[in-house]
Amino acid sequence: MPLTGIEIFKLLPKTNCGECDVPTCLAFAMKLASGKAELSACPHVTEESKEKLVEASAPPILPVTIGTGPEAPKIGGETVMFRHEKRFENPPALAILNSDTMDETEVSARLDRCQQLQYDRVGLTLKPELVALKADSGDARKFEALVTKTKDSGCRVVLMSDNPDILAAGLKACADQKPLLYAATEENLDKVANLARENSCPVAVKASSVEGLVSLTGKLTAAGIKNIVLDSGARTLRKTFEDQVIIRSAALVKKFRPLGFPTITFPCEMTDDPMKEALIASTLIAKYAGIIVLSDFQGESLFPLLVARMNIYTDPQRPLATAEGIYEINNPNENSPVLITSNFSLTYFIVSGEIETSKTSSWLLIKDTEGLSVMTAWAAGKFSADVIGPFVKKCGITDKIKHRKLIIPGYLAAESGGLEEELPGWEIMVGPREGAHIPAYLKSWTP
Ligand code: SF4
To answer: Of 294, 252, 256, which Cα lies nearest the Cα of 276?
Structure first.
């Protein structure tokens, strides 16, 4: 578990020299404990303390990156059992399972789906991350060809075989991309561990139980391998769910390092029913998979999974927020309507989307409400007349328009009188309560 500020303080030089841009070692220790400073900012910490701090401050579930580049998915790194305690750190990567026994056309179609099934939502791009490549044919050349084709499509991969020679053949085609090797088992551990070490790749271990994983991860860590992913071998929802909870709580609550790694799960092997598979995957998004391998990607099941994942892995202490300011929609001019709303991202994207759909040129004012929605911000006093009035005066919208009309959200109707006092000379118009009614409302706009 992470060290407390006081525990960190005991390992610092305690000279209060201030070279870390913080006046005292204690203050620096507190910043370090809350993740707001880097240990490297103190030039005087001893090597011995540094080692202890790095070791002790490592998250109880180590993070593992699959692939290379800025978009390579990072899994693990979790520090809490429940999202409300702090937040979940790294969302599980979603993978599609492709086999070297599939024909070329099918593989191409599946790779195309990986690229095409991407969604923009509240300013984020939601998409799956991985392609799991399974060597079902037993033919190293066929497997290598599948890996090459997948690599050429730009997808990041998991190489799946119990045979180290076949894994090595796949690695020949993509070692530079640091794929996940699946899997080291009791039978092949040394050979797969060598492949992982020689190529600096993460490696998954597979056992037939959680207990079985413990000795395997012990051997791998003793061999200097730390990028490990766990497969407990469970292939039913109930057993997989139990194992995920046991692994997470052993690492976090019991501080049991041999299970302090992210997991890989296989809903694709638990059912033939695509709907059930999606439901199993959604359970594992919540608790606590690191990688979820699906038999296929289809928009109707993938999109809800991506949205569920986004919601669960959004920091509950930091609402998604849009920057305060004036947003131009459909090339507005001096006669265009001016609307105002809060900076909760979902509100912004719904309102701006509806204005775009209306094809009415408009100015949209976004007031910083600390990411709260209209009603919540209003109830908290962050979106009332005495806040909105000064913002409208200062934001610069008056230089861009000839008229003085402001459309406020329907839910703020009670503030219209107060706003007329705050903004003398302005006409305050009460817009619709629901975003979906904005296009119809704007049709009747006259400056
Ligand atoms: Fe203390 Fe190091 Fe900061 Fe100096 S630089 S105040 S020794 S933590």
So the answer is: 294
